[in-house]
């Protein structure tokens, strides 16, 4: 596999968790953001869109969507703006995936590079695509962002679904033992579940 970049979306209001700074919440002693970045340790560059804690133990590039709080599609565009033109693939990830692993990323990368599609994402047991746990052809992501702008005139407030409507995606099932790598923490109960799995 060749090189790839990683864009980690660390914004969002975390309304169901009382407005907590969700990426900094810990699972098994490490912040969720740190755990996601560890899963893409070999990505170059690693870009965080959102607030980067001063004690983050790894070096990253950071940026913010414009305007702040304008949603995940605007955040994706801000992150992609820092990905060099010669980087063929980009992992696009939420920052609240504490069970994500390097192996899970490798599966997505191999699928994205071998399938006649524009990217690869996990599909959960209910058949839902986990759109913020995927690897994409960088050029295809950029083209999809341009199409969203053509459709609605701006990225502010656009949904991930609107972006993905312009992308052909390979769906990947996780067949290995252990927790699903796309498990995200939207509630305190989710956080407790992740903590139990991570032990």
From TrEMBL:
Q: Name one GO molecular function term.
A: transferase activity
Its keywords, alphabetically, are: Transferase
Q: Name one Pfam family in it.
A: NTP_transf_3
Annotated MobA-like NTP transferase domain residues: 6-154
SUPFAM superfamilies of this UniProt entry? Answer: Nucleotide-diphospho-sugar transferases
Q: Which domain of life is it from?
A: Bacteria
Gene3D superfamilies membership = Spore Coat Polysaccharide Biosynthesis Protein SpsA, Chain A
Q: What is this protein called?
A: NTP transferase domain-containing protein
Q: Which organism is it from?
A: Paractinoplanes aksuensis
What high-level taxonomic lineage is stated for the organism?
Bacteria, Bacillati, Actinomycetota, Actinomycetes, Micromonosporales
């Amino acid at each position: 596999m060749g090189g790839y970049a990683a864009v980690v979306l660390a914004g969002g209001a975390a309304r169901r968790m009382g407005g907590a700074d969700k990426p900094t919440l810990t699972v098994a002693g490490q912040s969720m953001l740190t755990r996601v970045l560890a899963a893409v340790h070999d990505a170059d560059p690693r870009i965080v869109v959102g607030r980067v804690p001063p004690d983050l133990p790894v070096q990253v590039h950071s940026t913010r969507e414009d305007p702040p709080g304008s949603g995940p599609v605007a955040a994706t565009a801000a992150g992609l703006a820092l990905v060099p033109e010669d980087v063929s693939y980009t992992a696009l990830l939420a920052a609240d995936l504490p069970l994500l692993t390097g192996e899970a990323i490798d599966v997505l990368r191999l699928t994205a590079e071998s399938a006649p599609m524009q990217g690869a994402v996990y599909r959960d047991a209910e058949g839902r695509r986990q759109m913020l746990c995927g690897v994409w052809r960088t050029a295809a992501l950029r083209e999809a962002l341009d199409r969203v702008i053509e459709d609605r005139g701006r990225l502010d407030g656009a949904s991930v679904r609107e972006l993905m409507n312009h992308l052909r995606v390979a769906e990947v099932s996780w067949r290995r033992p252990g927790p699903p790598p796309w498990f995200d923490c939207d509630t305190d109960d989710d956080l407790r579940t992740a903590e139990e799995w991570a032990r």
